[in-house]
C-alpha cells in the first residue's frame, strides 16, 4: 500500500459535549475545518499518528497525489496522517475477515448489513464498543449532525460498535419513465395511483413501442413498498417472516395476500412480453436504459433522483412516488465505519474520522480528488475530468459535505436531510435477530425463498400454484421453529422498549 510520512506537530484535546445534544441540526458544511480542538498542530511536539482506514472500493486513479495533499492538511491541522487502504469490492469480505482474525494493523473499516457484516463483526468482538462518553468527546461533528432517532438502528445487544456514515437513510419506492416516451404518448404519469393505473400506462407504452420493453420486470419492483403507505415490515427482509404491527406477531402468509396485485401484475407483464425475456437473469440493464430500450422500472425516490438518472444514463426520466418514506434497521446499517478492537490508538482514529466528517474541504478532496487534476469547478459545480479520482463518498463520513456536480439539483442535500428527519421508522427498528439457535433451519428457509423468489417476482409461473408449493417446502425446512424463536426475540425486544 502506498503511504506518505510527514513531520509532525500537535493535537489538543477534543471538545466535550453531551451525547446526542443538537442531533438533527444538519451537517456543518459551511466551514472549512471540522471541530477537533482548541489548539493547533503547531502547539505540540508529539509524533504524528497514522490512521489506517479500510475501504470497499477499487483504488482510485491519482492516489499518491490526492493522499499527499490530504495528509498535508491533516498533519498541519490535527497532527495525523491517513492511509486510505482500498480493497476491491469482490475481495473485501474475505480480506476483512482475514484482517480481523489475524490481528492485522488497521484502525477503521467499512462495515454494513450487506458487506463485512456489522452485526457479525460486533458479535465476534472484532469491533470496539463506542460508549456515549467516547462519542461525546471524540466525535462532536458526527453527534451534532445525525438525528438521534437513528442510533438505535446500529445497536447490537444495546451497544454501539460503529461510527455512522451519513447519507440518505430512508427508502421511498417509485417508478421511473422515459420522459420522451410518455411525452410523445401524452401520458400523465402523476395520475398513477395503483397497480391498475400503472398497468394501463405500461400497456399503452407496449402498444406504442413494440420494438422496446415497456418495463423492466417485477423482480426489481420491491413489492413490500410499491403502492403501500409504508414498506411492509419483515424480519431479515424475508416475506414469510412478515411482522404484523397490529398483532405484534410474525405472520408466515399475510405478506403474499397483501401483494397479490403485485404478483398479478408481474404475471401480466411476463405473459404479454412487456419485459425482456431474460429479465430474471439480465446482466447489463444499464446499456438498455441508456439506449432507451427499457421504458419504465422501479426507482428509489430521493431528492435529485431525476438529475442523477440523466447523469447515469444520458437520457431524461420522470419519476413518481409509490410509497411513503421509511427508515428500517438495514438502511441505517447499510454504511458504517467500525473501529478495530485492537487499534493502537482508537480515540485518535475516531477523532480523525470525525474531523473529516466535519471538514468540507478535506471531505471533497476524498470525494473528488484535486481541483485542476481530477475536476474543475464550473459556476461552483464539480465537472469531473478524464482519468480522475473516483471514491465512494457514502463510505467516507458525511456525504452531505459533497460539492454539487453539474447535474445536481440546487438544495438536494438540504432536502435529503429533511427527508431523513421526517421519515417514519420501521416498527421493528433496532431489532437485530440472533440467528444462532435456528441457524440451520433459517439458512434452509432462506434457500427455499431464493428458489422461488424470481419465479414469483418475474411472473414465471402462476403464483396461486407456486405459493402453496413454496410454503410446504418452508414448513419442511423448519419454518415453525424459526418463527417461534424469532417471535420470542421480538417479544423480548418490544418488552425492553416499553
If you had to describe this structure to a student in words, what would you say it looks like?
With 498 residues, the chain is an alpha+beta fold. It has 18 helices and 16 strands. The strands form six sheets. Strands 2-1-3-13-6 form a five-stranded mixed sheet. A three-stranded antiparallel sheet has the order 10-7-11. A two-stranded antiparallel sheet has the order 4-5. Helix 16 (439-457) runs antiparallel to helix 17. The longest helix has 19 residues, at 439-457. It is globular and about 75 Å long. Residues 1-33 have low confidence and may be disordered.
Read across the widest sheet, the strand sequence of neighbours is 2-1-3-13-6
Mean pLDDT: 91
Total of DSSP H or I helical runs spanning 4+ residues: 18
The largest sheet, given as strand count, sense and whether it forms a barrel, is:
5 strands, mixed
SSE topology:
Layout: E1 49-56, H1 63-78, E2 80-87, H2 89-102, E3 108-111, H3 118-123, H4 132-138, H5 140-143, E4 155-156, E5 159-160, E6 162-164, E7 174-178, H6 179-184, H7 195-208, E8 242-244, E9 249-251, H8 254-258, H9 260-271, H10 285-290, E10 296-298, H11 305-313, E11 317-321, E12 326-327, H12 329-332, E13 336-339, H13 346-357, H14 360-368, E14 375-378, E15 381-384, H15 412-422, E16 424-425, H16 439-457, H17 463-477, H18 479-497
Parallel strand pairs: 1-2, 1-3, 12-16
Antiparallel strand pairs: 3-13, 4-5, 6-13, 7-10, 7-11, 8-9, 14-15
Amino acid at each position: 500500500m502506498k503511504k506518505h510520512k510527514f513531520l509532525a506537530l500537535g493535537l489538543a484535546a477534543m471538545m466535550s459535549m453531551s451525547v446526542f445534544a443538537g442531533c438533527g441540526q444538519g451537517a456543518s458544511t459551511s466551514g472549512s475545518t471540522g471541530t477537533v480542538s482548541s489548539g493547533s498542530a503547531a502547539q505540540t511536539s508529539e509524533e504524528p499518528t497514522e490512521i489506517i482506514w479500510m475501504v470497499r472500493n477499487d483504488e482510485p486513479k491519482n492516489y499518491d497525489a490526492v493522499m499527499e495533499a490530504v495528509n498535508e492538511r491533516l498533519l498541519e491541522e490535527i497532527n495525523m496522517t491517513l492511509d486510505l487502504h482500498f480493497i476491491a469490492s469482490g475481495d473485501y469480505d474475505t480480506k476483512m475477515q482475514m484482517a480481523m482474525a489475524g490481528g492485522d494493523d488497521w484502525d477503521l473499516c467499512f462495515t454494513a448489513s450487506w458487506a463485512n457484516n456489522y452485526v457479525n463483526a460486533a458479535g465476534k468482538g472484532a469491533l470496539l464498543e463506542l460508549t456515549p462518553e467516547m462519542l461525546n468527546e471524540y466525535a462532536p461533528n458526527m453527534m451534532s449532525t445525525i438525528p438521534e432517532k437513528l442510533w438505535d438502528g446500529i445497536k447490537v445487544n444495546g451497544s454501539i460498535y460503529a461510527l455512522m456514515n451519513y447519507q440518505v437513510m430512508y427508502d421511498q419506492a417509485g417508478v421511473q419513465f422515459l420522459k420522451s416516451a410518455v411525452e410523445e404518448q401524452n401520458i400523465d404519469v402523476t395520475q398513477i395511483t395503483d397497480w391498475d393505473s400503472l398497468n394501463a400506462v405500461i400497456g399503452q407504452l407496449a402498444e406504442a413501442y413494440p420494438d422496446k420493453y415497456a418495463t423492466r420486470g417485477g423482480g426489481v419492483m420491491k413489492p413490500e413498498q410499491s403502492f403501500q403507505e409504508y414498506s411492509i415490515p419483515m424480519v431479515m427482509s424475508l416475506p414469510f417472516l412478515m411482522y404484523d404491527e397490529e398483532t405484534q406477531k410474525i405472520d408466515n402468509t399475510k405478506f403474499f395476500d397483501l401483494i397479490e396485485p403485485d404478483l398479478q401484475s408481474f404475471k401480466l407483464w411476463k405473459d404479454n412480453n412487456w419485459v425482456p425475456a431474460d429479465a430474471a437473469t439480465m446482466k447489463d440493464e444499464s446499456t438498455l436504459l441508456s439506449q432507451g430500450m427499457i421504458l419504465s422500472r422501479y426507482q428509489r425516490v430521493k431528492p435529485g433522483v431525476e438529475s442523477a438518472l440523466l447523469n447515469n444514463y444520458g437520457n431524461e426520466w420522470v419519476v413518481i412516488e409509490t410509497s411513503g418514506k421509511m427508515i428500517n434497521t438495514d438502511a441505517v446499517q447499510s454504511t458504517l465505519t467500525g473501529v478495530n478492537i485492537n487499534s493502537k490508538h482508537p480515540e485518535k482514529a475516531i477523532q480523525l474520522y470525525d474531523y473529516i466528517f466535519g471538514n468540507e474541504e478535506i471531505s471533497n478532496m476524498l470525494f473528488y480528488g484535486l481541483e485542476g487534476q481530477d475536476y474543475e469547478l464550473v459556476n461552483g459545480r464539480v465537472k469531473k475530468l478524464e482519468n480522475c479520482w473516483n471514491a465512494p463518498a457514502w463510505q467516507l463520513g458525511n456525504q452531505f459535505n459533497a460539492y454539487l456536480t453539474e447535474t445536481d439539483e440546487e438544495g438536494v442535500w438540504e432536502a435529503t436531510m429533511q427527508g431523513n428527519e421526517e421519515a417514519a421508522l420501521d416498527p421493528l427498528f433496532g431489532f437485530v435477530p440472533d440467528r444462532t439457535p435456528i441457524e440451520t433451519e433459517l439458512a434452509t428457509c432462506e434457500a427455499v425463498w431464493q428458489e422461488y423468489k424470481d419465479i414469483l417476482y418475474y411472473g414465471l409461473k402462476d403464483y396461486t400454484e407456486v405459493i402453496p408449493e413454496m410454503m410446504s417446502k418452508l414448513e419442511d425446512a423448519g419454518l415453525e421453529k424459526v418463527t417461534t424463536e424469532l417471535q420470542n426475540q421480538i417479544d423480548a425486544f418490544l418488552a425492553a422498549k416499553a
